[in-house]
Amino acid sequence: MPGKERKEIEASIPVGAVFGNVGSYSFRCAVIDDTLREMDHVSFEHPTCGEVLGIVSSIELQSDMGRNEAASSVYRKKASTTWTGVAKIDVIGFRDHNSNLSRPLTPVPPSTKVFRASRTFLSSVLGLDVFRENGAYLGKVQNSDVDVVLDPEILIQKHVSIIAKTGAGKSYACGVLIEELSKHDIPILIIDPHGEYSSMISPNIDPEEYRRMGRFGIDPKGLGGRIMEFSIGAGSGATPLGLDPRAFRPEELLELIGIKAVGPNASILYNAYRKLKAVLEEDWDLSDLLSVVEADPSIGKWAIASGLQHMASMPMFSAPRTPLGEIVKRGAISVVDLKEAPLDVQQIGVAALMKRLFQARKEGLIPPFMLVVEEAQNFCPQGSSTITSEVMRAIASEGRKFGMGLCVLTQRPARIDKSVLSQCGTQIILKVTNPNDLKAVISSVEGLDPRMSDEIQMLPVGQAIMVGGGIAFPLILDIRTRHTRHGGDCVKFLPERN
Fold first, then answer.
1. Which residues contact 74 (CB under 8 A, 6 or more apart)?
2. Same domain, 97 and 17
3. In terms of residue numbers, what domain contains 69?
4. Contact (CB, 8 A) for 204 and 481
5. Same domain, 463 and 431
6. Same-domain pairing of 311 and 328
7. Which of 52, 362, 411, 441 has its CA 20 to 30 A from that of 490?
8. Is the dihedral of CA 280, 284, 287, 292 positive or negative?
9. Dihedral in degrees, nearest 10, Cα atoms 162, 168, 174, 177
10. Cβ-Cβ contacts under 8 Å for 356 (sequence gap 6 or more)
11. Domain final residue pick, 267, 296, 317
């Protein structure tokens, strides 16, 4: 029997019935199907609302064995007892006549039969069937064949965060997202500290992953000519990224060299700008600006001169200037490789690039795009400030208005700026075990409650809890296999469960 037909038949067989005290938010169910698991989706018939979706939040076995009998059973070969499975069902809701997700305001009667939710009903209530034809396919609902397909526009406009401990698969999951956005020709710019993403040029031919592709309907496919590699450090084989210093306002240059934009020292740079424009108009570079600053009689010039000298020594300000339209263009995936660059060069280079691109989007000089930032906690740390912090906060809070989406990846959510993390409307949360990081995730992500911290700690590699993105309720996602080769640490998925 085909798998789809089998699933639909299973959905018509009760897994249990409601008993005991019943609430409108949750109830208990006497389980007769011992294959029912936590986080499985179920449905039941409400007297006034019709079919309603629920989720199994916990399961326990209740037996008639007392404490003394249990103790004495230690000395018997076989204990004589019976038990019943009891599941706690949390009510998710149903779609009303306006297609809004609603929850019944009255409890379901005891003895109501509970069924496994059918594929069609689950997709409809959670909003997974809206973008089936032209959405971003990220995987399947845990233990089911229900596809998780999201609206690419929501992903860009509402921002995305991908959170996981080291080795839990956050870069792999991000690769799936990039593949899907690329199918829609959405420009993508990746800030890549470890050089992981250039591998997406090649198809995924890993034997173990190839065996998993059938479940997801995926085949190996590299992105080939879509990938463009840039570097901001010396020694990389990628194309050197060149930025035009004339495009920065004086206050932006001061910020890049770590000097406040007000005060006597700042006025030295403003005066130098005016003199350059009066003599050279637009035909100048950092060496010209440095010469004018060094000629200033004020002693404060040396702090600015030192900063300008440091900037002038960086490859990104001495390399041939890269047109912004080459960095962000329709259908292209630009990877900015930072692995050969020192930390200070990374910070200044990323800050300068983000500022230029954000301004270019405001002016409509480049198409709408998604900015992907790996190790985001290094560029917008919580409780402290780096050169990149201000522009990251600005993109997180204002980018959606100008068509600049943001995807932040972090293995330490407790160390990333909460104002950035809270602006992400879609969260993909893989395994996290650090107590501080768990607390940060639960407090920053809307829709998660403290109970979910146990689920997050137990997630196997290849599974994630997804919140937002147009999905009506948090769900556990089996992340689909990638088309492209993964360039990070080898991700080993658990065998597929029956």
1. none
2. yes
3. 3-118
4. yes
5. yes
6. no
7. 441
8. positive
9. -90
10. 243, 247, 248, 324
11. 317
Using one digit for the tens of pLDDT, what is the confidence trace for 97-131? 998 899 999 999 999 999 999 989 999 998 887 77
Structure tokens at 196: 């992981």
* Each residue's pLDDT tens digit, 229-239: 999 876 567 88
Q: Is 144 left (phi over 0), alpha (psi -120 to 50) or beta?
A: beta
Q: What are the residues whose beta carbons fall under 8 Å from the beta carbon of 492, sequence distance 6 or more? A: 208, 461
Q: Specify whether 359 is located in the same domain as 218.
A: yes
Q: Per the domain annotation, does 236 fall within a domain?
A: no
Who's near 236: CB < 8 A, 6+ residues apart?
Answer: 337, 339, 340
- Cα–Cα distances in Å, from 9 out to 122, 124, 216, 397? 15, 18, 22, 47
Task: Give CA–CA dist 466/162, Å, rounded.
Answer: 9
Q: In angstroms, rounded to a whole number, what is the distance separating the alpha carbons of residues 498 and 496? A: 7
* CA torsion angle 449 426 462 376 (round to 10): -100
Give the C-alpha separation, 470 to 228, whole Å: 31
Residue 121 parent element (H or E)? helix 119-126
Mean pLDDT of the chain: 88
Same domain, 348 and 364: yes
